[in-house]
Amino acid sequence: MEKEEKNSRRNFLRTAATGAVLAAVTPAAFASESVKKPVIIPAGAKGANDRLRVAVLGINGRGKTHIEVIMGLAEKANVELVCLSDPDLNILQERAAEFEKKYGRKIAIEQDFRKVFDDKTIDAITLATPNHWHALQTVWACQAGKDVYVEKPATHNISEGRKIIEAAYKYNRIVQHGVQLRSSVAIREAVKHLEEGLIGRVYMSRGLVYRWRPDIGNKGISQIPAGVDYDLWCGPAPMRPFTKNLVHYNWHWHWNYGNGDVGNQGIHETDLCMWGLGVNSLPERITSMGGKFLWDDCKEVPEIQTSIYHYPKEKKIIQFEVRNWCTNLEDGAGVGNIFYGDKGYLVVKGYDTYETYLGEKREKGPSRSEKGELDLHFQNWFDAIRARDMSIQNGPVQTGALSSSLAHLGNISYRLGKQLEFDPVAERFIGNDIEDANAMLSRDYRAPYLMPEII
């Protein structure tokens, strides 16, 4: 068994080195029943009776939810939340006080997450940090022997998708992508209907991100607040002069740190677009356009964006819409997905509800609504950690690379203002005048926050 595992990892890494990693390593949700992923069982794996010790990195926004979910599952999953980390010491102290008041015990805090990685008593980490940190922290955590739950998007650029997959395999880590609808009972049922032909041959999927995003103004440059390690916050990204339009949350709307709403809320929908459509690679043709039509603020990303992703060989297409203000819903969906087949269509609302409409008369078919997907997604991660088995993950690392990369492709087309041809195996743009596009596949990492070589 050990020899087979080593050979499997060696073959994977050899394939990854050719640039074919996304096409070669497909997640269970995309793969056919005949494709089996390796089960990884490193020495020292924790058993069912061993308590998993977990730390949360990034606790201003989404990290608060991570704390609540982990604490809610603590007894059932036999996990212990032992540390909180954030570059903002003020937030850290505030969360620690809230934690002690709510749960009746103190919790360790650490401003520099690298010390969390050095702590050998910590088994796993969750990442709710800004997008520009996700991949590098995932790789470093894997190297430190930690399992990882990484919020969407798993990457800030396309090249990082290969890196996080390589790291998960080389260091035998369970990396779960935070797209909780993959653990939703209702959405899994919906995808099964699509696979079994309820709406016929599925040829198009549509992703919707209609969110209320107000004018953020322009707060200008200001002094770095006491207690904020701004160098650590910027990490691998350029260290621009400090502004409250970045710290906290509004970094989403600046290219150096975020990816706009298609790379924020939209990753849930890009992921489901690919899953439900049954495609296991990136598209060959991409076009995206939009702009800022509402506010004269400091956001760099588009408020309105339409992206098209074409799979000509499969005769399939993905449409994606971002709208940031007043808009209609589409059959009740404002954040969600619609799948079109030759016998009907299926609507997904949010993370936990689907409806189907069949035939020319749009007769109602099966539907379901069932909450609790986030708890299920964390529980699935804990189960996979204990089993040391990637194949039972609902949101394995490959899904993070694929769904994030789809969003990045649309953003590159938008930013360059042109339709692009893409080779999904080589992970490169092809054709004429594409040097600027290929340059956007990665980024220059600011020392000392450098992406390591994995192979």
From TrEMBL:
Organism: Aquipluma nitroreducens
Domain of life of the native organism: Bacteria
Keyword set, alphabetical order: Signal
Annotated NCBIfam families: TAT_signal_seq
Domain Gfo/Idh/MocA-like oxidoreductase N-terminal: 52-178
Name the record gives this protein: Myo-inositol 2-dehydrogenase
One function term, GO molecular function aspect: nucleotide binding
InterPro entries: Gfo/Idh/MocA-like_OxRdtase_N, Gfo/Idh/MocA_oxidrdct_glycsds, Gfo/Idh/MocA_OxRdtase_bact_C, NAD(P)-bd_dom_sf, TAT_signal, TAT_signal_bac_arc
SUPFAM superfamilies in UniProt: Glyceraldehyde-3-phosphate dehydrogenase-like, C-terminal domain, NAD(P)-binding Rossmann-fold domains
Position of the signal peptide: 1-31
PROSITE patterns on file: TAT
Residues annotated as domain Gfo/Idh/MocA-like oxidoreductase bacterial type C-terminal: 195-277, 378-449
